[in-house]
Specification:
Strand 6 and strand 7 form a beta hairpin. Helices cover about 25% and strands about 25% of the residues. With about 220 residues, the protein is an alpha+beta fold.
Length: about 220
C-alpha cells in the first residue's frame, strides 16, 4: 500500500520539524463556502526549549570535529486550517492525549472551525470546534506546551464564531480550566462521570467535568 509522502519524515526531521515542504493555494470550505487562506499565521518567535538544546548540540559537535558550524535558520510555527494531509498526525496526537480510537475525519467538512499548528512537517498542536460552537479538542505536544499555542488556537476558534456562544467540557482536574477562565469561559454545569467511559484507568484526570460557556450576548 502506498504511503502519503507528506506524512513521512525521519526521526531527525520529526525532532527538528524539517522536512520537504510544499506550497498551498487558497481553498474553499465545503461547509460555508468561504475562501480559506493557506496559512492563518506564521510565528517566527516561539521556540521550544528542546530546539535550542538541539542547536547547541549541533554547534558543540561541529566544534569537536573542527568544522565550521552553519546554523540553519529557525523554522516558524505555521497555523492553518485542518487539511487531509494533516489528518493522520492530528488523529495520532489526539489519541495520545485523550483516548484511543479518536478519528476527526468529519472535521474536514467544516475546516473553518479548526486550527492546526505545524513546525515544518510535524503537527505540534490542534484545536477543533463544531459549526454549533462546541469545542471538541484542544491539545499540544508535550514539548511545545506552556508556550502560548493553545491560547492562539482558542482565539482563532472564538473569532470564527463571533455571534454564537462557545461551549466545551473539561475535566475538573485539568489545568486548562485556568486558560479557559482567562479567555472568558465560565462554568455553567458540573457533570459527574462525564469522561468515565473514555479516560484510561491510570489517568490522573478526574472523570467529572465542567460545562464551560463563553457568552456572546
Amino acid at each position: 500500500m502506498s504511503q502519503n509522502p507528506h506524512l513521512i519524515c525521519s526521526m531527525g526531521e520529526a525532532l527538528s520539524g524539517r522536512s520537504p515542504g510544499y506550497q498551498r493555494t487558497y481553498s474553499r470550505s465545503p461547509y460555508t463556502g468561504k475562501r480559506l487562506r493557506p496559512l492563518i499565521w506564521r510565528d517566527f518567535e516561539t521556540e521550544a526549549p528542546f530546539s535550542r538544546v538541539l542547536a547547541e548540540l549541533r554547534a558543540y559537535h561541529a566544534h569537536r570535529r573542527g568544522v565550521a558550524h552553519n546554523p540553519e535558520p529557525p523554522l516558524p510555527l505555521l497555523y492553518s486550517h485542518l487539511r487531509p494531509e494533516h489528518l493522520s498526525q492530528v488523529n495520532s496526537l489526539l489519541q495520545t492525549t485523550f483516548w484511543r480510537d479518536i478519528d476527526v475525519t468529519e472535521a474536514l467538512r467544516w475546516p473553518d472551525y479548526s486550527v492546526v499548528v505545524r513546525r515544518g512537517a510535524l503537527v505540534v498542536g490542534c484545536a477543533l470546534m463544531t459549526p454549533q460552537g462546541y469545542i471538541t479538542y484542544v491539545t499540544v505536544l508535550p514539548m511545545w506546551r506552556h508556550l502560548g499555542l493553545s491560547t492562539v488556537m482558542l482565539h482563532q476558534l472564538v473569532h470564527a464564531q463571533p455571534d454564537r456562544d462557545i461551549t466545551l467540557h473539561v475535566s475538573v482536574s485539568n489545568e486548562a480550566i485556568v486558560l479557559y477562565n482567562k479567555l472568558g469561559f465560565k462554568p455553567e454545569e458540573y457533570i459527574l462521570d462525564f469522561y468515565k467511559d473514555y479516560l484510561p484507568h491510570d489517568t490522573h484526570l478526574s472523570p467529572h467535568a465542567f460545562l464551560l460557556r463563553l457568552r456572546r450576548s
